[in-house]
Amino acid sequence: MKFTGRGLTILLSLLSAASAPARADEPSPKYTEVLGALQAGKNVKLILDMSRCSSAEGGKPASATQAGLVINAFRVTVQNGISFSNAHQTVDSSGRAVTEYIRHSLSREGKLTVRASKLVVGATELVNQGEFICELPDGAKFIW
User: Where is the signal peptide (predicted)?
Assistant: First the structure.
C-alpha cells in the first residue's frame, strides 16, 4: 500500500496521536470518572479496605478495617484533587468520648489519601491517627 500527499499526512498524524504518551497534567481515567459522577449529582459512595492501603510514612499496611461512606459534599482543587471529609462522634477504646475527623483526597493520578485524627471531648488538641495511601480499585472503590 502506497501513501502520498494528503493521505500520508493523515496517516502520520494518526500514528503520532496514537503513540504520544499521556500528558503529565492530564487526570487519570478513575479520577475523571469519579469527578464526572460527582458533578452529575450522582450518589457516590466510597468503600475502603484499609488492609490494602499503606501508611504514608512507612509503607506498612494499615489495619484490617473496612469502611464506607456516602460523599455528601466535595471540593476540587488543582493541588488536592477531589477532597471530602467525614466527622462523627464515638467512644474510643479507652471509653472517652471523641470526635473523629477523616479527610479524603483523590489525587489527579488516581490515588486516595486518607487522613484520620480525633479530638477527645474537653481537649483542645487533635490527635493524629495516621495517613494512608489507597490504590484504586484495590484499597478504595467508588461506586454510584
Answer: 1-24
